[in-house]
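quick one
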Amino acid sequence: MANENKLQNIIGHCKEYGFVFQSSEIYDGLSAVYDYGQLGTELKRNIREYWWRSMTQMHENIVGIDAAIFMHPTVWKASGHVDNFSDPMIDNKDSQKRYRVDHLIEGFAETLDKEKGEVLLQQMDLLLAENNFDGLKQLIEDKKIACAISGTCNWTDVRQFNLMFSTEIGSVAEEANVIYLRPETAQGIFVNFLNVQKSGRMKIPFGIAQTGKAFRNEIVARGFIFRMREFEQMEMQFFVQPGKQKEWYEYWKETRMKWHLSLGISPDKYRFHDHAKLAHYADAACDIEYDFPMGFKEVEGIHSRTDFDLKQHQQYSGKKLTYFDTDINQHYVPYVVETSIGLDRAVMMILSEAYEEEDLSTPEKPDSRSILHFPPMLAPIKLAVFPLTKKDGLPEIARDLIDQCKPYFKCFYEEKDAIGKRYRRQDAIGTPFCITIDHQTKEDQTVTIRHRDSMQQERIALSVVKDLILEKIKMF
Ligand code: GAP
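structure w/ glycyl-adenosine-5'-phosphate:
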């Protein structure tokens, strides 16, 4: 399937089956804002849960918090976001359309052959690293990169544009203060560093994890839930002794890549991309890129953030943020290695990986099925139970089985339509296991289990169903 088609098909499938909807769709939608439907919400929760447990449950020295979205405005001054969290933008004078310079050039590079595209991206990376705005404009003009709307190359100069959303806090206009919607969850961790370290008696090296909403006024938002204005991050800040950040950076690169591979995704669908231009807080940084239908794109960032954030908060708040290390008898401001993955991007990665239009045609009959090959632990519904008919006591047995299983995992009951149709509907939403209760069940207490990917069916004892599914969906 051509890749552009694949993306369009995934978007259509997500809408049809209740995974993702355009926000405020009845009002023609809100650009780059999406709502998760009944199945998308379950999928997203499962991915979040897998990340959370991988970080906190599987690492004794990582704890989780849930900081507020609103933070004191000085946080964003200290973190550098007020002054530096901006992207170079360029406007087309004819269409008045504004573009992020890197997205404009990347979009053009995708239309070139692979080698030429890579050379262009290297040129862009160099200019971005030097903050050479004149050079970037020149590159856009030299390559005759045109606006998608006006079709012209009539560009303004390249300018910086801050990505933070602001709002007001306070009841009366005169008293109101401008505050920002957080553009990353990380700062909630930094400002709570000592609270957690002291109350949890944490010893360095240790980490603080958090999941939550972040907001960015992305100028060019495209690629479905890949780039949104309201999105969710899953971040972990790992506090280490100064000088040890390089080794921990390598450790977290490897550990995070292992997490990605544990999703059953092949290593050739991933690559590391080292940042040519480091953010204002980093001494090393890379992305984990996944091969989305639109090509390799960032799904996660690993950043060695030095002691920048804690030192800045120390300076702006006037409060000490040092740690006394009993191993070396020294006070210091810890260094930080961060892992930061976008939850919505992870959802999109899992959907891209799972979606397939499978051709099941035989010489006699054309046939196909839509299928989502989710890893069982992430599937929104783990088990569907079907009585073969609506009578003869079969629905009662099916309901009993669901009652047994539903405290442990999400089940689905259906008695309408032929079994084959019911199987296909579950394939389309990624349910890994279906159980059919038939007349034989009444005689020998066995049922048919049908496996989504292989479509194989086998007869098993009714009494083992719950434990068998629990074994298949376990995370660790
Ligand atoms: N605290 C570091 C930080 O925020 P980032 O590379 O800007 O670093 C981390 O963002 C991750 O958040 C990205 O790898 C991506 O998965 C996700 N992300 C960033 N902007 C996003 C957006 N507009 N929509 C969806 N996900 C986004």
